[in-house]
Amino acid sequence: MFPTTLVQLCIVHLVRNSLNYVPWKQRKHVAADLRAIYTSATAEAAEQELTRFREKWDKPYGTIGSMWQRHWDRIIPFFAFPPEIRKVMYTTNAVESLNMSLRKIIKTRGSFPSEQAALKLLYLALKNVVAKWQKQGVPHWKDALNQFAVLWEDRMRAVARM
Predict the structure, then answer these.
(1) Of the residues 38, 117, 127, 137, which has the maximum number of CB atoms within 10 A of its CB?
(2) Gap between the Cα atoms of 12 and 57, Å rounded
(3) What is the largest CA-CA distance in the chain?
(4) Which residues contact 81 (CB under 8 A, 6 or more apart)?
């Protein structure tokens, strides 16, 4: 029913790459029209939004519409997921925060006596990040978790037993 692998193309990176072609003054408007594409309810609705986007923006920024069209077959699997899961997938704040925390820990050290020392440090950093997430929570995670439990109940039970 739903793809078992994650989205073949990261929507966030596609949006960011698209905005590289847009001057600063126009970014908000172009980003809003791109958002209408990837937040559409279905792949068909997204395709209609892409057509509208191209009609509006192809003259000044034809590269963007071409890029989305070229990758469309790899974007479509994204729409097989419920909106709650898609929102967590295209909201990268949690992932970027984790990467920043790990880079910060590694960057402040000059060198490590062994690979095991580096792994221990990363492990401790991950424990701190998880504790912070448990205290503050990850935006939209509860909605996505509910959908995961509905779609993949057997997998969720298996993880809970670990």
Answers:
(1) 38
(2) 19
(3) 58
(4) 2, 3, 89, 147
CB atoms within 10 A of CB 113: 7
Cα torsion angle, 103, 108, 111, 116, sign? negative
The pTM of this model reads 0.64
pLDDT tens sequence across 104-142: 888 888 788 999 999 999 999 888 888 877 777 767 778
- Among the listed residues 90, 91, 95, the one whose alpha carbon sits nearest the alpha carbon of residue 79: 90
Q: How many CB atoms lie within 10 A of CB 158?
A: 10
Whether the CB-CB separation of 65 and 57 falls below 8 Å is answered with yes
CA–CA distance, 50 with 77 (Å, rounded to integer): 16
pLDDT tens string 21-35 = 999 999 999 999 999
In whole angstroms, how far apart are CA 96 and each of 15, 37, 103, 145?
16, 23, 10, 20
Supply 58's token pair: 């192809």
**What is the per-residue pLDDT for 8?**
40
